[in-house]
Every structure is written in structure tokens, then in C-alpha cells.
Amino acid sequence: MKKKNKQLETPAAAPEAVGPAKLGGQSREEWLAIRKKAGRKINPETADIKWEYGNALDPYGIRPEFWGPYHQFQWNYFARSPRSDIWVFFYDLPTATRHALWKKHRAKLASRLRDKEARALHRNQQEFIKLMEYWWDWVESGKSVEELAIMMDIHAAGSGGGAISEQHRKISHRILKLIKGALNAGLNRREAMGYLRRQVEGAYPPAQHKD
């Protein structure tokens, strides 16, 4: 009887270091080339698959420079030949192999894909609230909302095209505007965070799905 693969549903932890042990003494280029070569030998009719919730830019967890407080999580899908210990990211597979795997395992993956929108909305809520706490700490340190907004713009326009993304800058400005409104209303931190959380929940309502 074929052993059922354990599917992983926990966000991968950021790699603290990637050295010879992680890569088997190989360079990243060599390590990735081995996986792409193995991917060309995968038969979609017999392949094992698994999925992990991890970094969109670093599905294998070998590029710590792509990890940070605002990296993008997603479901990453992998395949391997039976009895092989080399898992290959779907987008490192030949296009025909990848399409065949999606077609063959569509029903199995449907439950994950069906909930993708709801999971994304939940992550947006958590990231938004995390940023609100971050900016509120700055306000409590004595900075005004106006000073923080200017600091954010300067940071975004820094050398190398900006230290933060334009999306993050816009979200932070939105949060600072909400914080200013809470302060003008005379709310303390506990009251303000309750108010701000309700604003976030209103912006990201639970997704509704039909089977």
C-alpha cells in the first residue's frame, strides 16, 4: 500500500544561515541545477506531491536575503519521483510536467486553493495589525504622526530605489492616518488599538465560498 505523504501547512521559518550543511557543500547554483535536472525526470503519473506554506521568493529556504518582516507568504507546491529525496518546486519543473501535475491532482489541491482568498485576507489582517503596533510604539516614543509620515517617505526614497516598497509606504501612511484619527478622538492605546482593529476587520471581511 502506498504511504500517504504528510502535507505541511505551517509557515516555514526564516533561514538563519545557509551554509555547506544545508546545501550539501554545493553552491546555490549547483544545488538548484540538481533539482531542475531531477525535475526533468519526474513522471507526473507516478510523482509524489506536497505543499508548504512559505516564502514566495524563496520556496526552498536557501536565500536568507529574501526574508524579512514583509516577505510574501504563499502555498508552494513540490513534486518528486517515487523514493527520491529531491523535492522540486513546481515552477522549476518543465511546463508540460507542471500542467500534467495540476490536472492530475486538481481535486486534491482544490481545498487549499479554495481557501486561498480567505487565508490571504487573514494574513493581511495580521500584517496590518502588526504594523499598527509598530507605528504606535513610535508615537509613544515621542514622534508625531507628521514626523513619522515624513520619515517613511524619506526611507522609501532611499538609495538603491528605496529601502521599502511603495505598497508598504502606502499602507503605513494609511495606518498613520488612522492613528492620527484615534489620537484626535482622545483615545488611549488600548482604546485606539480596539478601534483600529475594527477598522481592519471592516476592510478585510471573511471571504465567502460556495462549494
Task: Please give the structural blueprint.
Layout: H1 20-23, H2 28-39, E1 48-55, E2 73-80, E3 88-89, H3 95-104, H4 106-114, H5 116-140, H6 145-156, H7 166-184, H8 189-203
Antiparallel strand pairs: 1-2, 2-3
Helix pairs in contact: 5-7, 5-8, 6-7, 7-8
Quick one: biggest sheet?
Answer: 3 strands, antiparallel
Number of domains: 2
Strand content: 5-15%
Distance between the termini: 31 Å
**Oligomeric status:** single chain
Number of helices: 8
How many strand segments? 3
Q: Regions with pLDDT < 50 over 5+ consecutive residues?
A: 1-11, 204-211
Q: Mean of the pLDDT scores?
A: 75
Shape: elongated
What brief labels describe this structure?
single chain; 211 residues; mainly alpha; 3-stranded antiparallel beta sheet; disordered N terminus; disordered C terminus
What's a concise summary of this model?
Helix content is 50%, strand content 9%.
Give a verbal description of the structure.
A 3-stranded antiparallel sheet has the order 1-2-3. By secondary structure, it is mainly alpha-helical. It contains 8 helices and 3 strands; from the N terminus they run ααβββαααααα. The chain is elongated, with a radius of gyration of 22 Å. The chain folds into 2 domains: 20-114, no CATH class; 118-203. The two termini are 31 Å apart. It has helices spanning 20-23, 28-39, 95-104, 106-114, 116-140, 145-156, 166-184, 189-203, and strands at 48-55, 73-80, 88-89. Helices cover 50% and strands 9% of the residues.
